[in-house]
Design goal:
Oligomer: single chain
Distance between the termini: 26 Å
Number of strands: 10
CATH class: Alpha Beta
Strand order of the largest sheet: 1-6-5-4-7-8-10-9
Helix content: 25-40%
Family: Belongs to the methyltransferase superfamily. METTL18 family.
Main location: cytoplasm
Structural class: alpha/beta
Subcellular location: Cytoplasm; Nucleus
Enzyme class: transferase
GO molecular function: protein-L-histidine N-tele-methyltransferase activity
């Protein structure tokens, strides 16, 4: 697949969870000049994070995020130095995956889901929602504003959930007594986090209940923004989606950059993986080329 030229003069800003200035090739476990690869640290354990674990300094500042003239959400401001003790880095292998930054794809995803609701193509009232790699959690928060009954937020880092996601959820949802979704927060790697999430396994469904016509629960809607930057994680991400998505009517909305230069991932790489598997179909909903980053896309996936 031919690479596109970046539309930004600062390519480092176009690589979620990756900073060329802070990492060497060996730091990423890629190997260099025939030397053995440096093994990455093991991922943190999968845990549920209680909302009461919000640190006292969390959300000391809340900034408005104007989605459109009808929708404004609020986000906190924290930095990697305060939370992780590192500066100017979007990735610390095995420790931090960039969740403290509000990436463009998160806003693209909110806008697209908003449009889907407005056009009557998506109903959120009463639905079960999972946001993967949530960071600020704005897409999941929006579904709560629209009546989702259950929202689970997942991020690689428990610290991101404590310092950012939980305060943002409280700021946007808990202050409004008319909005009361059941909310939980989970931290951990995509290869293991399914053990804590709802199950909607398509393979198990087909093997055990095909003749009965019953359905697994799982999530009605899975949201993810800027999660497909690294080729090495795409398989685990897709397997997780198939394990957790409600079969057969669940849908996935994914926002991200078409290509992540330097790390090999991108929306098209993930779409190719989905099409190769053959269990789901992909539909391109939006393409954004506004000059603030590489070309960005929003896709919808559903079971065939």
């Amino acid at each position: 697949m031919a690479e596109e030229k970046s539309s930004t003069t600062n390519p480092k800003e176009s690589y979620p969870s990756f900073s060329l200035s802070n990492l060497t090739q060996s730091d990423l476990g890629l190997g260099l000049f025939g030397f053995p690869e440096k093994p990455l640290p093991p991922p943190p354990p999968c845990v549920e994070v209680d909302p009461s674990e919000e640190p006292p300094i969390a959300l000391s500042n809340a900034d408005p995020v104007v989605i459109n003239e009808s929708l404004t959400l609020y986000k906190g401001r924290v930095n990697t130095s305060d939370v992780f003790g590192v500066t100017n880095s979007d990735l610390v292998p095995g420790k931090y995956e960039g969740g403290l930054k509000l990436w463009e794809g998160s806003l693209d995803l909110v806008k697209t889901v908003y449009s889907e609701v407005e056009k009557g193509r998506l109903v959120l009232k009463g639905k079960r929602v999972l946001e993967l790699g949530c960071g600020h959690g704005l897409p999941g928060i929006f579904t709560g504003r629209e009546g989702a009954a259950l929202i689970h937020f997942q991020d690689f880092n428990a610290e991101v959930l404590k310092y950012l996601t939980i305060p943002n959820v409280k700021e946007n949802l808990m202050k409004d007594t008319s909005v009361s979704p059941f909310v939980r927060f989970f931290a951990g790697d995509w290869s293991e986090i399914h053990k804590l999430l709802l199950s909607g396994n398509i393979d198990q469904q087909k093997e055990t209940d095909e003749t009965l016509g019953s359905e697994y629960d799982g999530y009605d809607l899975i949201l993810m923004a800027e999660t497909v930057y690294a080729l090495s994680s795409l398989s685990n991400l897709y397997v997780l989606i198939k394990k957790c998505l409600h079969y057969p009517r669940g849908v996935v909305y994914m926002a991200g950059k078409k290509h992540y230069f330097g790390v090999g991932g991108g929306t098209r790489q993930f779409v190719h993986l989905v099409e190769e598997d053959g269990a789901m179909e992909a539909c391109l909903l939006a393409e954004v080329a506004d000059g603030s980053s590489n070309v960005r896309e929003v896709w919808k996936f559903s079971f065939k």
